[in-house]
């Protein structure tokens, strides 16, 4: 009897060539890291808004205006916005790669997801950093009551 060596199934006959950055690996790592950071950001957001102070009954235009006037909360909200949108966009990209069979369809869908993510990030960031509850030059009867204190 002679011993025969059988190669393990699906093992490559030669090692795979390195083709630069492994985007799938970094996307996978990003999803895990951003998920952990998002849990902290979201639960911090919910705790501050719902548990501290008067709870949900205190959330109104003035509360949001006050929060968006504080640079700490501006950056908190922008970090949450960016991480959530990129996390969701990357998840959608993965779903498109898994279920869209035609190359053209995958390209169109991924372009649409990218466009939506970019537009929402730009608009959301602009809102957070340019929000002014009391714009100058507006009639006093159209402004919220908190603006009378200025």
Automatic annotation (TrEMBL):
Transmembrane domains' residue ranges: 29-52, 72-90, 111-131
Phosphoprotein listed as a keyword: no
What domain of life? Bacteria
CDD domains in the record: SQR_TypeA_SdhD_like
Gene3D superfamilies recorded? Fumarate reductase/succinate dehydrogenase, transmembrane subunit (1.20.1300.10)
Q: Does the keyword Nucleus apply?
A: no
Subcellular localization: Membrane
As given in the record, the signal peptide range reads none
Identify the keywords attached in UniProt to this record, alphabetized: Heme, Iron, Membrane, Metal-binding, Transmembrane, Transmembrane helix
Pfam families named in the record: Sdh_cyt
One CC-aspect GO term? membrane
InterPro entries per the UniProt record, alphabetical: SQR/QFR_C/D (IPR034804), SuccDH_FuR_B_TM-su (IPR000701)
**Residue ranges the record marks as coiled coil:** none
Protein name stated in the entry: Succinate dehydrogenase
Record organism: Microterricola viridarii
